[in-house]
Specification:
This protein is of the alpha/beta class. The protein has 2 domains: about 90 residues, 3-Layer(aba) Sandwich (Rossmann fold); about 140 residues, 3-Layer(aba) Sandwich (Rossmann fold), CATH 3.40.50.620. It is built from 9 helices and 12 strands. The radius of gyration is 19 Å and the shape is elongated.
């Protein structure tokens, strides 16, 4: 059994799935993680035919990208099975392709967003293939809540592999408690990054409402290859849904990949784990 840590790719034989695979290859070639494709079937009777198709895809992808992926075929549904497999494998992350902002608008509130919301494993959502051969710049909208520190730890992991420069964007607050909390998070980030010698900048904005717009503008200016956000759940009559700001960031018009971290991601595992704070 392959004991390497896994990057999981939901696989449906489409271009968007291959875009996700290309991003996984970019990471795996440096991190030496295994890439696993997960295909979900409705009935067990589909297994034999689908296994033949998956083996053919594995061979094709190896010829194109130079990496031999693993695969798994599971009976189930997309909403539950992707996260079940990710948990079973203790996957480091799931990389999922979308069709961009129009595609995300069509599925808002449906399976894709629900899968991200329900995951204890970070998702990277991509709209196209990698635009560069490495992740040079990462923009992190950063606020006062405790779970925001998880962004710092994950940004550091990409810095380790790609020597990425990290841009933190944070708002200011009038409320004394919020100012104190924000100051604590900034202190954590500075101490952490200084301790591991990360190249970073901190950008301060005056209004919290400008956090995402400023972050996207900065990402455009720096040609950032990734955004990192925390996905916060909001209870509605349809169940838990993602906030509009998070949806906008995931489907950003710049097509920048977005790492989505659950507010309760649990302990980071494997070689992507980090300590501090």
């Amino acid at each position: 059994m392959d004991k390497r840590k896994k990057i999981l790719i939901p696989w449906d034989f489409t271009e968007k799935a291959e875009n996700a695979f290309a991003h996984a290859v970019q990471i795996a070639k440096i991190s030496e993680h295994a890439i696993m494709l997960i295909h979900i079937i409705k009935e067990q009777s589909e297994y034999v035919i689908m296994e033949k198709s998956m083996k053919e895809e594995i061979a094709r992808l190896k010829g194109k990208y130079g990496i031999e992926a693993l695969y798994d075929i599971r009976e189930g549904d997309i909403f539950h099975t992707i996260n079940t497999v990710a948990s079973e494998l203790e996957a480091e992350m799931v990389i999922m392709g979308t069709h961009g902002i129009k595609g995300m608008q069509k599925i808002t509130g449906s399976w894709a967003l629900k899968v991200i919301i329900g995951s204890q494993v970070p998702f990277i959502v991509v709209q196209g293939p990698p635009r560069t051969d490495k992740i040079n710049c990462i923009v992190v909208p950063y606020s006062f809540k405790r779970e925001e520190k998880e962004k710092i730890k994950w940004a550091y992991q990409f810095h380790k592999y790609f020597r990425s420069k990290i841009y933190l964007v944070h708002p200011t607050f009038k409320d004394a408690w919020l100012r104190k909390s924000m100051a604590g998070n900034l202190r954590f980030a500075r101490n952490f990054f200084d301790g591991v010698k990360v190249n970073y900048e901190i950008h301060t904005i005056l209004k919290k409402s400008d956090l995402y717009n400023y972050s996207l503008n900065l990402a455009r200016e720096t040609n950032a290859e990734m955004l990192i956000i925390v996905v916060r759940r909001h209870l509605s009559w349809t169940g838990y849904v993602m906030g509009p700001e998070e949806q906008y960031m995931i489907a950003n018009p710049l097509g920048i990949p977005v790492m989505c971290i659950n507010p309760n991601p649990g302990k980071l595992t494997g070689s992507f784990s980090s300590t501090g704070g």
